[in-house]
Amino acid sequence: MTLNTLMDELAQERGSDLHLVVGEPPIFRVGGALIRRPDGPILNNEEMESLLLPHLTATLNASLQQGNDVEKSLRLDKNRFKMTVFHERGNLAASIRVIPTHVPTMTELSFTREEHVTLYKLIDLKRGLVIVSGPTGSGKSTTIAAMIEEINQQRAERI
User: What are the tens digits of pLDDT across the range 33-75?
Assistant: First the structure.
């Protein structure tokens, strides 16, 4: 089992996240539900190191050894991922999120009419700072990408 194999499986299952924790098999988030890989091995710290560390640069590895969380973008075939590696209960752990390659249009986003009106008011701003906040996985990056694409379609701007 390699990290590439797990990421490929995640993409094929149309999952959003892969969680790797010592003492558990690989865990996929598919349709909002956490699913433990039924045939997956229970990961130990050595396996975790062999899965994750080869994908980190020397700088990221040094930062991880100092107790910091590190993030790395990964690409596998046509899929992109964001990997966060951290320590949990003294062992390595990781969360790997699929980064969608398709930027949805504003009309493709599932917002209420009132929310669309508010977002279009923000899109029409010529200057200023717009902060989009929310919990992990709530669609902040997708919303921002759609807003930027809408601005690019409407007018020539440096954003």
Answer: 999 988 888 999 999 999 999 999 999 999 999 999 999 999 8
Do 78 and 28 fall into the same domain?
Answer: yes
Domain enclosing residue 132, as ranges = 106-154
Alpha-carbon torsion 135, 137, 139, 141, what sign?
positive
Q: How many CB atoms lie within 10 A of CB 147?
A: 19
* Number of domains present in the structure of the chain: 2
- Phi–psi pair at 29, nearest 5 degrees: -100, 115
Matching residue, tokens 């990221």: 60
60 and 131 inside one domain: no
**Cα dihedral: 132, 136, 137, 141 (round 10):** 30
How far apart, in whole angstroms, are the C-alpha atoms of residue 4 and residue 125? 42
